[in-house]
Amino acid sequence: MKIQLAIDLEDVDGAIKLIKKTKDSIDIFEYGTPLVINFGLEGLAKIRKQFPDITLLADLKIMDVAAYEVNQAVKYGAEKIDMLI
């Protein structure tokens, strides 16, 4: 059995701190949807650079946090949202 930690934070630096604290106990680190939305895959690259040996999973599905994504899109200037449900 493997332990996966979903890092659904809104801050890459917070994710890095969490990984530092838990890397000896976790098998898979999930770069969660809020991180993908707020920092794109550049944040993923930042984490990979700092932790080249961890197993890093990118959560690129969006349906599980649709309300969050809509709120973020509006916050950053979207006037309309196109969602497939």
List the helices and strands and how they pair.
Elements: E1 4-7, H1 12-22, E2 28-31, H2 33-50, E3 55-58, H3 66-75
Parallel strand pairs: 1-2, 2-3
Describe this structure in words.
The chain has helices spanning 12-22, 33-50, 66-75; strands at residues 4-7, 28-31, 55-58. The chain is an alpha/beta fold and 85 residues long. It has one domain. A 3-stranded parallel sheet has the order 1-2-3. Helix 1 (12-22) links the parallel strand 1 (4-7) and strand 2. The relative contact order is 0.18. The mean pLDDT is 85.
The arrangement of helices and strands along the chain is EHEHEH
User: Strands across the major sheet, in which order?
Assistant: 1-2-3
Characterize the biggest β-sheet: 3 strands, parallel
Q: From the helix content, strand content and strand pairing, which structural class follows? A: alpha/beta
Rg from C-alpha positions? 14 Å
Number of helices: 3
The residue ranges in which pLDDT falls below 50 over 5 or more consecutive positions are: none
Mean of all residue-level pLDDT scores:
85
Shape verdict: elongated
Please give the share of residues in helix.
40-55%
What key phrases describe this protein's structure?
3-stranded parallel sheet; 3 helices; alpha/beta; 85 residues; 3 strands
Short description:
A 3-stranded parallel beta sheet has the order 1-2-3. The chain is α/β, with parallel strands linked by helices and 85 residues long. The chain contains 3 helices and 3 strands, in the order βαβαβα.
